[in-house]
Amino acid sequence: MSIYQLGDVVSLGFMAIALGMDAFSVSLGLGMQEVRLKRIAVVGMVIGLFHMLMPFLGIVLGQVISTQIGNMANLIGGLLLVGIGAQMIFSAFNHGTKKLVQPVGAGLFFFALSVSLDSFSVGLSLGLSEVKTVIALLLFGAASMVLTWAGMILGRKVHGLLGAYSEILGGSILCAFGLKILFG
User: Fold this and answer.
1) Which cellular compartments is it found in (predicted)?
2) So where are the chain's domains?
């Protein structure tokens, strides 16, 4: 593996952590409810799966679009990352918009979908930049699963001191990567 490829993997790792921060912050609140460890394991795995599925769909769509728009791909990808990051930062200040659902059945499905929707757009921008799909998906899934577990367990202990700050950090990282693509 060359230094360039290692740099790509490290960048994808940071991006995976940034995407997982949203799941982490929401999981902090969910963890404050009385949730058993077995349920925490299931929720983390489902969210990890959705954080692989949604960017995959975005990457596929992004690759289709990139063959049609050529040189605009990097510009669009960078703008998408900046926009998603900014949305995460602004939503951290709007505490009333998040509603907790029970992480069971359809509630778990909608919870995982809502937490992973931003990863679709990130996948779209990654598809525009021709990233290594399998590595990106595995990193996104693993990071979001581990961060969900950590958030729910920490939420049981801490009672929400880090929620908004973790989402601000995640949004800042996405903005930074978007700006790197735009001006890099």
Assistant:
1) Cell membrane
2) 3-183
